[in-house]
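Running log. JK asked me to keep both predictions on one page so they can be read side by side. First protein, sequence followed by its tokens:
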Amino acid sequence: MSETSVVKTAMSETDCKNFRIIELLFFAYRSFVTDADEVLAEYGFGRAHHRVLHFTNRIPGLTVAELLDILTLTKQSIIRV
């Protein structure tokens, strides 16, 4: 471990609040997606499938190239979906 990465002082009150916010966002996200993941699993789908279904339903006539841009995916990475 380099000397610059060693914590030399305790976190400030502001740092602690920032970390707490990050932790709360993590737990909220995990809780939020759990139910959806269970429903998707019943159909053999994952989150990537859900994103594709969402945007193709929301934007009629969406091309594959546009979908790839929206999802910031490559053709290779979307093939299994």
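And the second, directly underneath as requested:
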Amino acid sequence: MKKTVNIALVGVGGQGILLASEVISRAAMLAGSDVKKSEVHGMAQRGGSVVSQVRIGEKVYSPLIPEGETDFLVSFELLESLRYADTLAPNGTALINTQVITPVTVSSGQQPWVEDIEARIEKAYPNRKLMDALKMAQDLGNVRTVNMIMTGALSKMLDIEESVWLQALSELVPAKHLEVNLKAFALGRGLE
């Protein structure tokens, strides 16, 4: 990859964002690219926002994506996609899981729910792909595979061979969970 590719994964603690960013990073390294990664997961264990940035290229100097230069925003949760709308490059692509995790501030009555979320997403992301990764994971019998469904969907957009992705998964996912994660990855990769 000559040009540096900037990927931001966003969502809520417990959705497997950090494993997904590890798989993406490992696949890129196995493919011969330089990779830098950063993550922020302050209140992740309490359902807080989680962000991981992965930068892939011939030579990457910083793990942080400059503002407005994210090529691929991979959002594991609907509302979190809006929180990071300003980070996407003008020609960037958003992959958005339609799953909704109600924030504590909303469920406690401190803030109202965003009523026009679909319209806001449509306006913020002209180039977007929405998917119900939670439903797909439920159909697989393991809701914890949403992350690999999202990773599989992203993998089709990156110039990395499928066999390299499978090697990265095999290296990072514990053996007892590998089969279902490979199935989830294949489901995401097969999305049109």
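Observation for JK regarding the second prediction: The chain has one domain: 5-189.
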